[in-house]
Specification:
Elements (H helix, E strand, L loop, with lengths): L1 H21 L7 H8 L3 H9 L3 H5 L4 E6 L1 H5 L9 H9 L2 E3 L4 H4 L4 E3 L5 E7 L2 E4 L2 E10 L2 E6 L24
Parallel strand pairs: 1-7
Antiparallel strand pairs: 1-2, 3-4, 4-5, 5-6, 6-7
Helix pairs in contact: 3-6
């Protein structure tokens, strides 16, 4: 079971490394790579709308779990999301450091820039991050790495602390 997943991930990794190597010897930033790929137009537009272009073009390194245009097409009401929520969603797709696929497979969770954790699951079909299939890996950029996923990840809603009946919640400032 694990062996099949490793073989599948290795093949996908080799294909994606071939794609990045074919683009030339000088690696581009995460944003430049996403722009040139042609299947991350919605992601790039969202990054621009959220004001994250400079950050994801910066030194890094970052690991981006990048949803494709097809993944974004499945999100209802995308145009109605406010900038703050969009920023939360996008930073939930980014981790600090360049985490290559081989390392991702050994992890159970990955902490994101948003502050939440992504759950990693290795199955016979491949690797999943929060239930999204990782479809391409190890797209090396000058400031990190991109792993392609087939869904848009949303951070879990913040749970408000419940106050037992008859008690008063006090905020410490």
């Amino acid at each position: 079971m694990m062996k099949k997943a490793l073989i599948a991930l290795f093949i996908v990794s080799m294909l994606s490394m071939g794609l990045s190597a074919a683009e030339g010897d000088e690696a581009k930033t995460i944003v430049e790579t996403a722009m040139e790929a042609g299947n991350f137009n919605t992601l790039v537009a969202a990054v621009e709308a959220a004001g994250l272009t400079e950050t994801l073009s910066g030194e890094g390194p970052f690991t981006v779990f990048a949803p494709t245009d097809e993944a974004f097409a499945l999100v209802e009401g995308l145009d109605e999301i406010d900038v703050e929520t969009l920023t939360e969603i996008l930073t939930y797709h980014v981790a600090s450091g360049a985490i290559m696929a081989a390392e991702v497979m050994t992890m159970r969770s990955i902490t994101t820039l948003q502050g939440g954790n992504l759950t990693v699951e290795v199955t016979e079909e491949g690797v999943k991050v929060n239930g999204a299939n990782v479809t391409a890996t190890d797209i090396v950029c000058s400031n990190g790495v991109i792993h392609v996923i087939d869904a848009v990840l949303t951070p879990p809603a913040e749970e408000e602390a419940e106050v037992p009946a008859g008690e008063v919640a006090v905020a410490v400032v």
